[in-house]
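Case study: Ecp2 effector protein domain-containing protein.
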Amino acid sequence: MHLSLSVIVAFLAVGIHGAPAAEDVEKRAIITSGTNDGSIFQFGDASRCRKLFYDSGACGLSTYFKGKVPSNMPLVAVPSRVFDKFGQAQHNKLCAKTITMTYKGVTRRAIVADENTSDEQSIDMCLGDWKAFGGKDGDGTLRRGVKWTIG
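Here is what the predicted structure looks like once written out:
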């Protein structure tokens, strides 16, 4: 009886601590995914680009998500055709969520801060992500076929 009680206690302990909390699962759940082209939003200093997304992006990160976005995470604008399906401006369900982008075997993570309303409907990114995907400062080409998930 002593052994079986120990097994039950051990099982319960693993069950309680081994399963992720509902909020952790929700944070990781994929909201949407797709494939779009990638583009550079602003040439030059990536910190200027990030500040512009943070202060002026449609999500209003500096106002509505203050303190909730890690300062070391890059920021991006997702195509408006994707963004608009999830609400308007700071009430959009994609705002401040993590986007995982993969291009030619390179994977980068960023935070959704804005929508790209251009005709290209690409994922606009700052120089750090752009360089990781093979772009160069001043290179205005597109990265065709960036696969992404947001969750």
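For the exam, be able to explain this: Helices lie at 2-18, 22-28, 46-56, 61-64, 80-83, 127-132.
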